Amino acid sequence: MDELDFEVEARPTSGREFSSPRSFMGLVWLKIPAGEFWMGAENGRDNEKPCHLVHLPTYWIAQTPITNSQYALFLQATGHLVPFHWENGQMPQGKGNHPVVNVSWEDVVALAKWVETEVGQPITLPSEAEWEKAARGGLVLPNGRNRLPKRRYPWGNVFNTRHCNTREAGLGETNPVDKYPHGASPYGVLEMSGNVWEWVRSRYEPYPYVAGDGREDMSRRNSFVLRGGAWNYQQELALVSYRNWDGSGEEYYNVGVRLVAPSLLPAGLSYL
User: Fold this and answer.
1) Which domains does the chain have, with CATH numbers?
2) What is the distance between the alpha carbons of residues 37 and 22, in angstroms, rounded to a whole number?
3) Cβ–Cβ < 8 Å for 203, 220
């Protein structure tokens, strides 16, 4: 069977709770309420099966990927290595509101650690489950039941070139992170399809998704998952269930990152 009707608890928790993180460097945090959602795809690729229910506690996710301007604040504060394509150490002209790219796994982990220190509570990369729920929506949304709990794209089941930046849009580069408001997810999260791939903290492992099986231990280097598609990839790779991965952790011109803040600190698992 491709669909599982049992509920998977995403991760054990220690009981230590956190609230919404304070505003910092222009990050807009959107609350993803506790509850279950469908993860994977019934008719997708083999690595997207089985489609199964996963329960997550409340968390907050950044509305957009980290922009060049936001990343520049991190660089100024820490002296971290500048992306290699920034000429003379300066962000590309006119692209302050575009997502930062050419950031490695180590770069984005260092960014999350810095933001965590500044806001005073855990900040990390999304898990695969957190990323997909934010893109697809839970079974119950703040305004009622999710009419499309297994939606293919953040906005619904039908692809629309006016809702995201994939190869079909013909832009040929990244776009400002607020360019496609109609492409928002049920929670208002932007840029979950197209523009840039996004690093997540989960290692690439088979489904069903079980956080406690070690895939969320960021201290164990392996192939980490990338989500969301990118400006130079076709629409089929921008599905909310599509799973890409990379084992090198190196920089790429079409890969960026967004951040999350958990409400419950996992017990026995390492975020950063």
Assistant:
1) 3-266 (3.90.1580.10)
2) 27
3) yes
Mean pLDDT of 214-239: 92
The pLDDT confidence band at residue 29, using thresholds 50, 70 and 90, is very high
Q: Which residue has the tokens 């305004």?
A: 143
User: CA-CA distance, 104 to 83, in Å (whole number)?
Assistant: 9
Q: Quick one: DSSP state of residue 53?
A: E
- Name every residue whose Cβ is closer than 8 Å to that of residue 233 and which is 6 or more positions away in sequence: 166, 167, 194, 254
Average pLDDT taken over every residue of the chain:
92
- Contact 199/260 with Cβ under 8 angstroms? no
What are the tokens at 209?
Answer: 């998704």
Among 141, 179, 134, which residue's Cα sits nearest to residue 161? 179
**Residue 169, phi then psi, degrees to nearest 5:** -75, -25
CB 132 within 8 A of CB 200: no
Which are the contacts of 79, defined by CB distance < 8 A and separation ≥ 6? Answer: none
* Nearest CA-CA partner of 237 in 178, 190, 167: 167
260 — phi, psi (to 5°)?
-135, 160
Euclidean distance between CA atoms 257 and 252, whole angstroms: 12
The string of pLDDT tens digits covering residues 113-172 is 999 999 999 999 999 999 999 999 999 999 999 999 999 999 999 999 999 999 999 999
